[in-house]
Prior knowledge:
The chain is α+β, with helices and mostly antiparallel strands. The protein has helices at 17-48, 65-94, 200-211, 218-228, 267-275, 298-310, and strands at residues 101-108, 111-116, 121-123, 125-129, 133-140, 145-149, 154-158, 164-169, 174-180, 192-198, 254-256, 262-264.
Amino acid sequence: MDPNGTLFFPEQGSTIASEVDLLFHFVLYLSIFFFILVTGGSFYFAWRFRKKGEDQFTPNISHNTSLEIFWTVIPTILVFIIFIWGFKTYLKMNVTPANSMEVNVTAQKWFWTFGYKEGATTTNELVVPVNKSVKLLMSSQDVIHSFFVPAFRVKMDVLPNRYTSLWFEATKTGEFDLFCTEYCGKGHSEMIGKVKVLSDAEFASWLASSSGPSDLPPAEYGKELYKSKACFTCHSIDGTPSVGPTFKGVFGRTEELTDGSSITVDENYIRHSILEPQSQVVKGFQPVMPTYQGVLNSQQIDALIAFLKTVK
Ligand code: CUA
């Protein structure tokens, strides 16, 4: 197996990847071998014992004990090998090493949020150190999603109202694709992210610089949040209508709401819309925005408001 990936497999980026691939290939080539043996045998016997003439009959063989034992015992042994091998790998993937670093994962329509106990949060980008086992404690704010990193060979459903977990240990630095693999609505195919694996030193400095309050000017910090918190998925800044209203010229605009009333977009309306997005929905849009309660702190909401004032 080429660790950099083959036609069939993405590169191997975690400790478990080569084990999963080896088992997969064992099952694959074993199946190919028996497929050829069985179909080849069928064709051969059909030809070998074809009808040759009116009074020529094949001998009447009722059974052959040693042959029957042979073709029962060999496959049974093979099935046991696959079961025991698969079960051991399964256990290994399911038992999180005790010294793992823990990251909280929140899935919602349609992005991922990662929370570190040091205080950093990221959106659609999971940053981890290399050669260290990482435990993800995952839950969903709305529907069922599924966390999948092909290069790590790990996948786990992410459910509302309960936690699921998963662990991996990245074996090389770099960026790896992260996908949602449970159909979760209109934006499912856009619910993609990256896993960024850094060296120990890079990770430590990333964590330190991401955990404190930002010292960017509010409007610039807000612009960064607009990108990093994936607001752009639903709100354009160039006037194009999307899942939600465009942010172009939003501040000070008068909007008609779904209940027929109208409102002028000010600081309070924006803050309210971020924390309780379903309560005052602009006419013509669906109430699909998730709450950012607990995702954005008040400094970040202030920064977003400052940014929205600049989008003209
Ligand atoms: Cu989340 Cu598909």
